[in-house]
Specification:
Number of strands: 0
Strand content: under 5%
Number of helices: 9
CATH class of the largest domain: Mainly Alpha
Radius of gyration: 20 Å
Structural class: mainly alpha
Order of helices and strands: HHHHHHHHH
Low-confidence stretches: 1-13
Helix content: 55-70%
Largest sheet: none
Number of domains: 2
Distance between the termini: 66 Å
Mean pLDDT: 84
CATH topology of the largest domain: Tetracycline Repressor, domain 2
């Protein structure tokens, strides 16, 4: 069986371990080993065998938890990202600045930023990897961005016809463009300037 063909899947994308009690310490050891290896060699050269060796577990122990290498890698990356949350400060602009700044930190100060360029290339050829990344990283975090914009619309800070998808894409897109395409560092104060510019067409005049 190849590294990309693991045990039969069960709901949630992990391998079948029905009837076996889960060991949280083993889970964490595997995830730590995966993120260390990912940071060192990149996604393509990560092997389940080496993750198992570093974690001090057997390959079947990993197969029982994650049905494919891609799912293991993405879940390991999730551990490096601060979980998003709805920080309702009373200002949609302020909340979006906070979320933008958090994403900048995730992209520049965690293994995510170092491995993402290679990972994106693999996503084009690996639909399971792409789906895992979207489901475990992109979608959960964008919910908080969307909620911030919708709160602004509900409070009257933003107009009711605000294009939520445009706002999210316009704030997040340039960060990935800098990381993946230009390689240029993200300018200090980006979050404030970007939020002000993107929200300008939708910001209502004070009453």
């Amino acid at each position: 069986m190849s590294e990309s063909q693991m045990a039969p899947r069960r709901p949630g994308g992990r391998g079948s371990d029905i009837g076996r009690p889960r060991d949280p310490d083993m889970d964490q050891a595997i995830l730590r080993a995966a993120i260390e290896l990912l940071s060192e060699v990149g996604y393509v050269r990560v092997t389940v065998a080496e993750v198992a060796r570093r974690a001090g577990v057997s390959k079947p122990a990993i197969y029982r938890r994650w049905s494919q290498k891609s799912q293991l890698v993405v879940e390991a990356m999730v551990t490096q990202i601060r979980p998003g949350k709805d920080n309702d400060s009373g200002s949609a602009a302020g909340d979006l600045m906070t979320l933008t700044n958090q994403l900048i930190d995730d992209l520049t100060r965690t293994p995510l930023g170092r491995v993402l360029p290679g990972l994106v290339a693999e996503m084009a050829a690996d639909p399971v990897l792409a789906a895992s990344y979207r489901d475990l990283i992109i979608k959960p975090n964008l919910r908080h961005w969307r909620a911030a914009v919708e709160r602004g619309m509900a409070s009257g800070e933003l107009s009711v016809d605000t294009d939520v998808d445009f706002v999210l894409n316009a704030l997040v897109g340039p960060l990935y463009f800098s990381l993946l395409i230009t390689g240029e560092p993200i300018a200090a104060g980006y979050e404030r300037a970007a939020v002000k510019l993107v929200l300008a067409p939708y910001t209502t005049a004070p009453s």
